[in-house]
Amino acid sequence: MTLEQIGFLVLATVTLSSALGAVLLKNLTHALLSLVLSFFGSAGLFFSLHAEFIGVVQILVYVGAIAVLFVFAIVLTREAQGDAGTLRHLGGRGKILGGLTAVVVGALLVRMILLAPHKLLTDAARAQEGGGTVGEIGMALMTSYIVPFEVASLLLTAALVGAIVIALNEVKPAASTPAASSPPLAPPIGRVR
Amino acid sequence: MEAIDQIFVNAKSFIVSTLESLGLPDWLTLLIGMVLPATLVVIVFPATFAFLTWLERKILGRIQNRYGPNRTGPWGILQPVADGLKMLIKEDIVPRAADKLLHGLAPILVVVPAVVVFAFLPFGRNMVPADTDVALLFFFAVSSISTLALFMAGWGSRNKYSRLGAMRSIAQMISYELPLLLAAVPVVMIVGSLRLTEVVSAQATEGFFGSFTNWFVFTPWGFVGFLAFFVAGMAETNRSPFDLAEGESEIIAGFHTEYSGFKFALFFLAEYLSAIAMSGLAAVLFLGGWNGPEVLPSWLWFFGKIMVLLTIMIWIRGTFPRLRVDQLMGFSWKFLLPLSLVNIFATGVWFWTRASIPGFAGKAAAFGIAAVVLLVTYVFLARINAGPAVQKRTYRYADL
Amino acid sequence: MIPLSSYLIVAALMFSIGLLGVLTRRNAILLLVSIELMMNAANLNFIAFWRYGSVDVSAQIFALFSIVIAGAESAVGLALVIAIYRHMKSVNVEELKSLHG
Question: How many domains does chain B have?
């Protein structure tokens, strides 16, 4: 059991168990924090794969931004208390069928990976060394992948505007309430010029 | 001078080599080699935090025309000891309705990023605990965890004021993260690397004057970037005048209302350590890191720069009133963000002017053009964001 | 050394855990959480194959764009959830059946 294998086992256990917690926990905020922990676990897996830039971007974007989005959604929908009861929160009629489907899919995938005869999957020494520095990624982003880069920025702008417009609180214009339509008591202060 | 400069590096290699010659297993020497710088960081920076609390109370007291603490020891120097003792022996009251997991985990999650970011700062020549390729990005990623931790603190306390404080603090911290990152981007552009040791070495040239004339703060984009970074850093760490989330006169104590004793001490520690870390990063990015004339060792220069920036933070705290929440957000989104974006553009202009016109004329032209672009943007943004002008006042005195 | 199949198994398990969440959770926000888990598993697959198979950084660029799109999608998805909550006063997906045929 080398140090590397112990590290990988710890990271994999943390990621999978917190993913399980995110999916099964009753309390919404606890589920969200479990998701954040699984993001950290997978960032750790990225670091162990020597992809530091992607790992750091994962923490920055997923934990720093997406988790905060989820926090705002939880706060604005006030559903911080799950419903009581054991696993009753896990869907109505479909929960047995859904669980079975997920288990079957997972088992099929794992079996496919374990039985694949491709040497790539089992030969541990094929891991390539070096490569993937930040400079290379930046160069690739600006030369070969410039079009997806610009399209992604357009997409983000569209998502930004769309999210703001969808979630905007439409403030109804003040009706004839006494407070709103009384004349101002003093002349408005304007620019002295 | 070389010996004093590298005293910590030499001490560490000496200890590691003696341990190796004693025949310890490989992994143990590696572990001890990693633990030693971490131990030094954990000893030095909380000691700086204790000194900083004393310094802050003395300076704030003098600004407010009173003595600071002066009873506990000469000049009140033992005040941090008294404060620490008080916080440790206070009773830890947890409200009955509080969410125990969130309430208990939040102080720890606030302190962890504040301590971890010190691993990426270069304290002196060859003195970085963790010299990674993506150190700057790591710094920002880890400090964005404290946003979630503050939310946990406020939400788990099941208290109206805590929740209000938590919401305000999340809104403030995410809106100031953008100018913070964007203010650091020109530095990365010019240096060409995210490695903080390279950022520091790019700010030094040969000779006595070379150690401080090349700092980025003396360029137009560096100056604006430094100001934007410093202000956004103060807002990120919830320091006055941006401490609306814990405003002591408005919402009781904001997100740390329901915390007492050691947990409150952890919040306090986290805020000051983040302030020290932000000052450290500002010094590394814009003020030349550990560069300085050879009369003092490099780590002393770094420490001195941090102390100067912290004193400026304390000075600002004692001078300005607290910003209202809409003024705070407006300042970030309508002023700092456009300014940081134009700063990036000005950096590009500066670089290309320098590259296309050789010699001193190129440097002067670059400085001039970038300065004009930034000045015009600043005046434009200031005019846009200005509130209504104050009416001319006429005073009438009572006639005798 | 760790073979590639270990990373792929971790990613597959994370994907099926996300699938479990999507199929069984009733709260709309937790649906989005499970979708994020599935996208995270796909990213892990990309990076694992980059490390063990290819020689250029295309896989990392792909994972980067995947993270970007996950961010955009969760922003719009959560905005929709908030807007739905304002109208229907509930985020329980079993109660949102006004389009039910």
Answer: 1
Classify B208 as helix, strand or coil: coil
Quick check: B204 contacting A, CB < 8 Å? no
B83, pLDDT greater than 90: no
Q: Which residues of A touch C10 (CB under 8 A)?
A: 12, 15-16, 45
Residue B169 in tokens: 């603090």
Residue B140's nearest CA partner among B108, B171, B183, B102 is B183
* Residue A110 vs residue C98, higher pLDDT: A110
Question: Which spans in chain B are helix H?
Answer: 2-5, 7-21, 26-63, 79-89, 100-116, 135-143, 145-156, 160-191, 196-201, 210-213, 220-236, 262-286, 298-319, 325-330, 337-356, 359-385
Residue bearing the bigger pLDDT, B241 or A148: A148
B384–chain A Cβ distance below 8 A for any pair: no
In a domain, B196, yes or no: yes
Who's near B211: CB < 8 A, 6+ residues apart?
A: B204, B205, B288, B291, B292, B293, B294
pLDDT digits (tens, 9 = 90+) for B285-317: 999 888 888 788 888 889 999 999 999 999 998
ipTM entry: 0.90
Beta bridge partners of C92: C27
Query: Which structural domain, as residue segments, surrounds residue B89?
Result: 45-384
Q: What's the CA gap between A71 and B228, in Å, rounded?
A: 28
Output the pLDDT for position B228. 94
Tell me, yes or no, whether B122 lies in a domain.
yes
The answer to the question of residue B2 being in a domain is no
Cβ pair C85, C91 in contact under 8 A: yes
Q: pLDDT per residue over B216-261, tens digit each?
A: 888 889 999 999 999 999 998 888 687 776 665 555 666 667 777 8
Q: Measured between beta carbons, which residues in chain C are less than 8 angstroms from residue A47?
A: none
SS3 C27: strand
Between residues B231 and B363, the one the model is more confident about: B231
Q: Work out the pLDDT band at B179, boundaries 50, 70, 90.
A: very high
Residue in this structure with the two tokens 């957000």, named with its chain if needed? B329
At residue A9, what is the residue type?
L
Residue B260 within a domain: yes
Which token pair is B132? 């990674």
